[in-house]
Amino acid sequence: MSPNDVFDILILILLITCALAIARMKDLAAAVILFSIYSFALCLLWVHRGAPDVAMTEAAVGAGITAVLFFYTLTRTGRREK
Questions:
Q1: Is residue 11 part of a domain?
Q2: pLDDT digits (tens, 9 = 90+) for 25-71
Q3: Could you tell me if residue 49 is inside a domain?
Q4: Which is more confidently placed, 49 or 79?
Q5: Count of C-beta atoms within a 10 Å radius of residue 42
Q6: Does pTM surpass 0.90?
Q7: Which residue, among 76, 56, 66, 60, has the nearest Cα to 32 in the 3D structure?
Q8: Which domain holds residue 50?
């Protein structure tokens, strides 16, 4: 098993763990933060796979703009899920 395979497996485990944690979160602000971590991990995977253009888009949209919009929505609604 090459170091590249190990990196891919670790990133994929991180992605699956983040996705499961996001789905189980009751604190929506923490879910947004985990979603940003998920997006950054996906960005690392895209860079490692040789798609820097997709990685930059994921970083800008997935971790940047989406997180800002989610936090704005949380200020207008509420932080805790009922």
A1: yes
A2: 999 999 999 999 999 999 999 999 999 999 999 889 888 899 999 99
A3: yes
A4: 49
A5: 20
A6: no
A7: 66
A8: 3-76
The count of structural domains within the chain is 1
Q: What angle do CA 53, 33, 21 make, to 5 degrees?
A: 105
| DSSP helix/strand/coil, 26 | coil
Q: How far is it, in rounded angstroms, from Cα 57 to Cα 66?
A: 12
User: Is residue 24 situated within a structural domain?
Assistant: yes
CB 81 within 8 A of CB 28: yes
Nearest to 71 by CA among 20, 26, 32: 32
What is the structure's pLDDT at 82?
A: 67
Query: What DSSP string describes 66-82?
Result: HHHHHHHHHHHS-SB--
Is residue 15 included in any domain, yes or no?
A: yes
Distance between CA atoms of residues 20 and 2, nearest Å: 27
Between CA 6 and CA 13 the distance in angstroms is 11
